[in-house]
Amino acid sequence: MKLKQKKLIIPKKAPVLYNNKIQSTFVKVINDDRKISCAIALDKAITIAKARNLDLVQVAQNGNIPICKMLDYGKYRYNVLKKSKQSKTKKVKTKEIKLRTNTDIHDLNIKLKLTRTIIEKGHRAKVNLVFRGRESMYESAGRETLDNFARLALSFAKLENEIKKEGRNISLLLIPKNG
Q1: pTM beyond cutoff 0.70
Q2: Which end of the chain has the least Cβ crowding within 10 Å, N or C?
């Protein structure tokens, strides 16, 4: 029997109210000096904004009287969308690649190609060499394997930090050369 997955319903932000969509009779307007004026009738504030070829946009709801600002609504909305897109696009992930002390040269080359694709996508790559059981006695062989891997990876990436031991693992972090 297959279970249905529930869709997450993400509530959208309340729409920005402007001009006649503001549902109050009085508003406080932020001046060009960034000072809040006393309460003005909504109709009067809209006519002042129209005279300046601007829109009256509600910035905050402060009690009964909303606070508004005179600005170009289209430009304001464009800047808000642009900022939200920029914050979404710059997500860098750290991908992990595991090696062992007895990893063969061919397998090391395959892991190197995988690392190259991760780095080319703009992500960081953490290369872990895992010791199991008595393998931890041969830490020098593990370091040598990781050194060889790092030397080969330097053609397309750079080291963010040196090789360090973390419990039963030794690891290094690779980042793209341009970033």
Answers
A1: no
A2: N
